[in-house]
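User: quick one
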Amino acid sequence: AQKVTQAQTEISVVEKEDVTLDCVYETRDTTYYLFWYKQPPSGELVFLIRRNSFDEQNEISGRYSWNFQKSTSSFNFTITASQVVDSAVYFCALTVPNAGNMLTFGGGTRLMVKP
Amino acid sequence: EPEVTQTPSHQVTQMGQEVILRCVPISNHLYFYWYRQILGQKVEFLVSFYNNEISEKSEIFDDQFSVERPDGSNFTLKIRSTKLEDSAMYFCAMRDQSFSYEQYFGPGTRLTVT
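Assistant: Done. Structure below.
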């Protein structure tokens, strides 16, 4: 069985601060995919990034960056110079291709960016 | 990002009533999923559907739930006799046949059972 843990339930920062959202996962499979989704106050789930288990290269997209470390089973998400529009709930998720392909979500981290 | 649509956006129903939630698929996406999110909680998998049959389902997906793609277009989730605890946001998701495994979510249907 798969499990995703987001230990931070809520984070509050002031605009322009950097913030890191933690994600720790558990799976016995060697092939898996990790994702981050954003859920703004309007409620939809917006895909942000996918990373497969064979690619540990970190990725940067604008103010967003992701740090994947298999050694610690972590896939952390950093927002640099946070903005009020970044306020949302962020979910980390895991899927295993040979185990149904459903997404297993973490509990989410609510990020509040104050002006 | 591909756009998935769901109807209705909000459904209010009385306990014991049947509801049908609908999802309009993206043309080349063949794998369909339903997820549920009780207010303030995490997103939970309900069922996956491929080639006109259920491929996986969770413990939540009991006999009160069913899915189908009746006309080859819309993908539906039916709850036969709603309970108060069925109140949640229901998300449809889908993906294509690539090995990216990215799932794209619809905007959700908020179901309120009174």
